[in-house]
């Protein structure tokens, strides 16, 4: 494990609306150059958490805890970091595009409908790098070329581009300032499978080309398996399980992760099991509920009295070097194949 300071440190992050907590005390790091996936069902708090990494929380949200972006000093020196919770608009505006950038699910919402995409990227390049108009146009063409948008499309308006081209243009726009962190919220939901692979490839490749980190919010556990170094599984605004993506998905240790996986069709059809497996029974709780105990207990085949009374804290499982953590009172004595347990229960 590297002793390098994480790019971003999140500590006890809590986001609430009218007193109901939707994100309920999350702590995790984003390491420099890694792809970290945030997974979990709808309403788990993935988008709120992802946006908080950029200081982009809804106006009516109350945010507590800490999201700290490490300092960027001359090489070898440690500069002071920046706290994003409660940061001024001015501080945040100085970071957006330069150090942290956001790729939303809906590409249209990120682009202005009334300007050609090439001009929008050139304007971003000018404001970030202070270069001449001509230079900015050249860099915009380069940025679009890198994501596979041909130069002939520089003058196109967003509505004239296909969904895939628009999503690429948004990636070019977000990465025009070479940010250290890109946060992408379900960037491929609207795309067909070929485009999905291309867009995920483009986002993940930045690690090789620029050493940038990626936080990928996704429902798509296949994308996590293919692209992520580590995964953080959320349930009802809390940590359920985290660790290196491959072992977490191959052998989940949190009942909730197992349930999520059990509800997926097998990647390779298993003889006699090629059908779609049933989803986890029940629904996730609303923000703020339940007040006590493990939020997954009502849906968990292993739940007992303690689970209903006491919120489980994340605890290490496996070899310490793996950095795996599970939030489950039964973590020490879980059955070997949790996924099978869900298949039986369903
Ligand atoms: N502006 C808001 N006002 C009130 N509640 C909100 C607001 N934004 C989010 N929430 C609530 O917070 C919870 C988490 O929302 P979030 O959007 O982070 O979920 P998510 O994991 O991204 O889900 P999805 O997979 O559907 O995108 C949800 O229950 C949602 O209703
Ligand atoms: Mg979301």
Topology record:
Blueprint: E1 8-17, E2 20-30, E3 35-39, H1 46-52, E4 62-69, E5 82-83, H2 89-95, E6 100-103, H3 107-110, H4 117-129, H5 133-146, H6 163-175, E7 181-185, H7 193-210, E8 213-217, H8 221-227, E9 230-235, E10 238-244, H9 245-250, H10 255-262, H11 305-309, E11 315-317, E12 324-326, H12 338-345
Parallel strand pairs: 3-8, 3-9, 6-7, 7-8
Antiparallel strand pairs: 1-2, 1-4, 4-5, 9-10, 10-12, 11-12
Helix pairs in contact: 4-5, 5-6, 6-7, 10-12
The structure holds adenosine-5'-triphosphate and magnesium ion (MG).
The site of adenosine-5'-triphosphate has 13 residues, from helix 1.
Describe the 3D structure.
- This protein is α/β, with parallel strands linked by helices.
- The protein has 12 helices and 12 strands.
- Strands 6-7-8-3-9-10-12-11 form an 8-stranded mixed β-sheet, with helices on both faces. A 4-stranded antiparallel β-sheet has the order 2-1-4-5, with helices on one face.
- Mean pLDDT is 88; it is low at 266-278.
- The structure holds adenosine-5'-triphosphate (ATP) and magnesium ion.
- Adenosine-5'-triphosphate is lined by residues 17, 22, 40, 42-48, 58, 60, 287.
């Amino acid at each position: 494990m590297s002793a390098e300071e994480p790019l971003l440190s999140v500590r006890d992050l809590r986001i609430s609306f009218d007193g109901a907590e939707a994100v309920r005390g999350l702590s995790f790091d984003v390491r420099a150059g890694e792809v970290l996936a945030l997974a979990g069902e709808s309403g788990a708090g993935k988008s709120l958490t992802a946006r908080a990494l950029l200081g982009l929380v809804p106006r009516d949200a109350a945010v507590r805890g800490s999201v700290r972006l490490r300092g960027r000093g001359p090489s070898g020196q440690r500069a002071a970091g920046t706290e994003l919770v409660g940061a001024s608009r001015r501080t945040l505006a100085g970071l957006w595009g330069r150090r942290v950038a956001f790729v939303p699910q809906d590409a249209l919402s990120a682009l202005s409908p009334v300007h050609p995409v090439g001009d929008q990227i050139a304007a971003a390049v000018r404001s970030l790098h202070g270069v001449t108009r001509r230079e900015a146009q050249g860099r915009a063409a380069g940025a679009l070329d890198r994501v596979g948008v041909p130069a002939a499309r520089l003058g196109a308006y967003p509505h004239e581009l296909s969904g895939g081209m628009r999503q690429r243009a948004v990636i070019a726009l977000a990465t025009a300032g070479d940010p250290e962190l890109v946060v992408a919220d379900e960037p491929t939901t609207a795309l067909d499978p070929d485009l999905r692979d291309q867009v995920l490839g483009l986002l993940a490749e930045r690690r090789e080309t620029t050493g940038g980190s990626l936080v990928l919010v996704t429902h798509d556990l296949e994308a996590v398996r293919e692209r992520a170094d580590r995964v953080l599984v959320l349930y009802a605004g809390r940590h359920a399980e985290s660790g290196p993506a491959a072992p977490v998905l191959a052998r989940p240790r949190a009942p909730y992760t197992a349930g999520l996986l059990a509800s997926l069709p097998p990647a390779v059809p298993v003889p006699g099991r090629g059908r779609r497996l049933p989803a986890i029974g029940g629904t996730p709780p609303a923000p703020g509920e339940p007040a006590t105990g493990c939020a997954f207990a009502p849906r968990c085949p292993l739940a007992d009295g303690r689970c209903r009374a006491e919120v489980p804290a994340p605890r290490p499982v496996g070899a310490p070097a793996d950095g795996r953590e599970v939030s489950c009172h039964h973590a020490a004595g879980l059955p070997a194949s949790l996924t099978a347990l869900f298949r039986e229960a369903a």
